[in-house]
Write a structure and sequence with these properties.
This is dTDP-glucose 4,6-dehydratase. Keywords: Lyase, NAD. Pfam families: GDP_Man_Dehyd. The chain is an alpha/beta fold. It has two domains: 2-181 and 219-242, Rossmann fold, CATH 3.40.50.720; 191-214 and 247-281 and 298-323, UDP-galactose 4-epimerase, domain 1. Helices cover 40% and strands 18% of the residues. It contains eleven helices and twelve strands. A seven-stranded parallel sheet has the order 3-2-1-4-5-6-10, sandwiched between helices. Helix 5 (150-169) links the parallel strand 5 (121-127) and strand 6. The chain is globular. The relative contact order is 0.14. The mean pLDDT is 97. Nicotinamide-adenine-dinucleotide (NAD) binds at residues 6-7, 9-13, 37-40, 42-43, 63-65, 83-87, 102, 106, 125, 127, 155, 178, 180-181, 187.
Length: 324
């Protein structure tokens, strides 16, 4: 089996590649795994260092929006797992062009390439942010899409294109929509690595608005395990939510990080809220649990402690990223 992983040098993609090549999913052992990555600011060779010597891995630097590179890499592929994206909401507020280009045009280019090469399966990795914000309850997969940020809108657009390739061409496309991920190798612009590294260095952490926005935290290992289940057993044309089952306000999250790093409330610096900041995300994971046996394994308490320990032990990974 040959697997093509786009965005495999980013946070979640590289966790997936390390897990697959590390033999974490018995029965899901490709003969060849190709990472196609543009190596934007978020892509990093160091993320693949633990598996760099694995003979099954081939890393291709290329843009998913480039039909020539996609045409070159698709033939012979059995499965595409599509992570590549511009992923940071704040950057999409500052400027949305790259988000539409990579997330929408890039996804369409990949789907077209996969169609022409008759690729067996295509997993499109998306986000719960496509649903908007929910005050109570949780979103099932058929909830209407109401994305609020340019990032979320670009992901919702790509979801619809992925769905359309299934409906129109009968392609075996599945879509996953996950909640907020955390864990090792996450670029230190995202809230958990930003806060952890700031706290370890004696700096303050910027807390948006009243700090009461709620997120469901999902350890990246659980997310990747869920993607692997969908890649193997997901039904064509279906959407699967993937969540961690732990909802925290940003203030709760910050308090836990203060406690783990031995800092106090004076390290919190309230800042003006993000524009159109979604109040609460909550995914219903009944479908993937019942159909594919998905269960998150990493409790948030242990997951946060392990994550803080990883950033403490891997300064050489994140210091250059923060400095740059
Ligand atoms: N991080 C989260 O909490 C989260 C939550 C929900 C969904 N997602 C989705 O999961 C996927 C992976 O997210 P992440 O956090 O690992 O992102 P990331 O920003 O850490 O990594 C993105 C990767 O894609 C690559 N890339 C960007 N543009 C590219 C292009 N045009 N061509 C080829 N490669 C390109 C980057 O170099 C990088 O390696 C994304 O699709 C994102 O929307 C992430």
């Amino acid at each position: 089996m040959r697997v093509l992983v786009t965005g495999g040098a980013g946070f979640i993609g590289s966790n997936f590649v390390r897990a697959v090549l590390g033999g974490r999913y018995p029965g899901f052992e490709p003969d060849e795994l190709v990472v196609l990555d543009k190596f934007t600011y978020a892509g990093n060779r160091a993320n693949l260092a633990p598996v760099a010597e694995d003979e099954r891995l081939r890393v291709v630097r290329g843009d998913i929006c480039d039909p020539a590179i996609v045409k070159q890499e698709m033939p012979g592929t059995d499965l595409v797992v599509h992570f590549a994206a511009e992923s940071h909401v704040d950057r999409s507020i500052a400027g949305a062009a790259e988000f539409v280009q990579t997330n929408v045009v890039g996804t369409q280019t990949l789907l077209q390439g996969a169609l022409e090469a008759e690729v067996g399966r295509f997993v499109h990795v998306s986000t719960d942010e496509v649903y908007g914000s929910i005050d109570e309850g949780s979103w099932p997969e058929d909830h209407p899409l109401a994305p609020n940020s340019p990032y979320a809108a670009s992901k919702a657009s790509s979801d619809l294109i992925a769905r359309a390739f299934h409906i129109t061409h009968g392609m075996h496309v599945s879509i996953t929509r996950c909640s907020n991920n955390y864990g090792p190798y996450q670029y230190p612009e995202k809230v958990i690595p930003l806060f952890v590294t700031n706290l370890m260095d004696g700096h303050q952490v910027p807390l948006y608005g009243d700090g009461l926005n709620v997120r469901d935290w999902l350890h990246v290992d659980d997310h990747c395990a869920g993607i692997q289940l969908v890649a193997r057993h997901g039904r064509p044309g279906e959407v699967y939510n993937i969540g961690g089952g732990t909802e925290l306000t940003n203030r709760d999250l910050t308090t836990r990080l203060l406690e783990i790093t031995g800092r106090d409330e004076s390290a919190i610096r309230p800042v003006a809220d993000r524009k159109a900041h979604d109040r609460r995300y909550s995914v219903d994971i009944t479908k993937i649990s019942a159909e594919l046996g998905y269960r998150p394994q990493v409790g948030v308490e242990q997951g946060l402690r392990d994550t803080v320990a990883w950033y403490r032990d891997n300064r050489s990974w994140w210091e250059p990223l923060k400095a740059g």
